[in-house]
TrEMBL record:
Pfam families in the cross-refs: DUF2600
UniProt-recorded name of the protein: Tetraprenyl-beta-curcumene synthase family protein
Length: 354
């Protein structure tokens, strides 16, 4: 199977070969979540699947890079993203705001990337709600099982863990007590600043908050050949700029929702709307440059430009006049390709809402 290199063939494969498998996997995990004994864990597991399906749909597109191993790769992507979304819900709804609790929960995300390790201990050890009937362990084991079937796990493992550590550290720092969040995130940024291109602490946080680089590496690990220089290119291609663009767009459309809920939103730290537009444009341009040397560069360019269309076609944007106006400007940064995905996203959401 050829990796798609234009928007029309990409979306044809997505609707035919990706979404049905993603929805099948999610339905299986949702059925499994219904049997979680603890009421709070049960409700958060169900909610994370019902309200964040599009995370798995979007991540699943990268499984097209795995060619004939696409379905196995989707198994990993859905399981790993489901862990991420479930833990995010648990941290968001936490009453303790205890960083030790958040760190313990997120040990599961590192364990999921460690197929050589069995039994990760009790991830819920710092909270009262603990009995998930083995749900989180099964998600972890599914990820491990898929990684065992890849041909180059040992080669990609260091980068997988690097990207996962960024993600887990972010989740810990951003969910603690309100007054501790910014200082912790800023201190964390200072520790990594010298290895990053010029950016702000909240932009670095955005770059850390995406799982796309992990999914991309796992997809390539199914190939017969994967060279060390390709792994380095994939890592540099997705982190920081593609991942940063991904999460900045996510926060951009959630601004009003987060303001009402009192949640941390990275886009709120920009001094004005023009600053948001300028930095979005910068991330779009740098993402384009960073993926130029990747294998299947045209596919990765579609992913990068597709992020603009997929996120900015969300109904949350249309409901807010000023944000809608900004979104139309940002979409143009990705040219005709992003506009294609923008209108495709609108039609898909309209169809699935019926």
């Amino acid at each position: 199977m050829n990796v798609p290199s234009n928007p029309i063939t990409l979306m044809a494969k997505v609707y035919r070969d990706v979404f049905p498998v993603v929805h099948h996997e999610l339905a299986m995990w949702k059925e499994r979540a219904y049997h979680i004994p603890n009421d709070e864990l049960h409700s958060q597991a169900i909610a994370s699947i019902e309200h964040k399906t599009f995370h798995c749909e979007g991540g699943g597109i990268l499984a097209l890079l795995a060619n004939e191993h696409r379905e196995e790769c989707i198994r990993f992507i859905v399981a790993y993203q489901t862990i991420s979304d479930y833990l995010d819900n648990l941290c968001d709804r936490s009453t303790s705001l205890d960083p030790n609790d958040f760190a313990a929960l997120h040990e599961s995300m590192l364990m999921a990337l460690s197929p050589e390790v069995e039994g990760g201990g009790n991830y819920y050890r710092y909270r009262d709600d603990q009995d998930d009937g083995g749900y989180l362990d099964e998600l972890v084991e599914t990820c491990q099982d898929v990684l065992k079937k890849t041909k180059h796990y040992d080669k990609i493992a260091p980068v997988l863990h690097e990207l996962a550590c960024y993600y887990c550290d972010l989740q810990i720092h951003k969910h603690v007590k309100l007054e501790e969040r910014e200082p912790r995130l800023q201190t964390w940024f200072e520790a990594h600043k010298e290895n990053l291109p010029e950016m702000s602490w909240f932009e670095f946080s955005a770059c850390a908050g995406s799982t796309l680089g992990i999914f991309c590496l796992v997809a390539y690990a199914f190939h017969d050949e994967l060279h060390d220089e390709d792994i380095a290119k994939i890592r540099q291609g997705y982190f920081p700029y593609v991942q940063g663009l991904h999460i900045l767009l996510d926060y951009f459309i959630d601004q009003e929702e987060d303001r009402i809920g009192g949640d941390l939103n990275f886009c709120s730290y920009y001094e004005n709307e023009q600053a948001i537009l300028d930095r979005m444009k910068h991330f779009v341009e740098e993402a384009e440059k960073s993926i130029g040397d990747l294998p299947h560069a045209k596919f990765h360019r579609l992913i990068s430009r597709g992020l603009l269309g997929i996120y900015l076609s969300d109904q949350k944007v249309s409901a807010q006049k000023n944000m809608h106006k900004m979104a139309r400007r940002i979409v143009k940064y990705g040219g005709l390709t992003s506009r294609f995905f923008y209108w495709n996203g609108k039609m898909y959401r309209k169809k699935t809402a019926q």
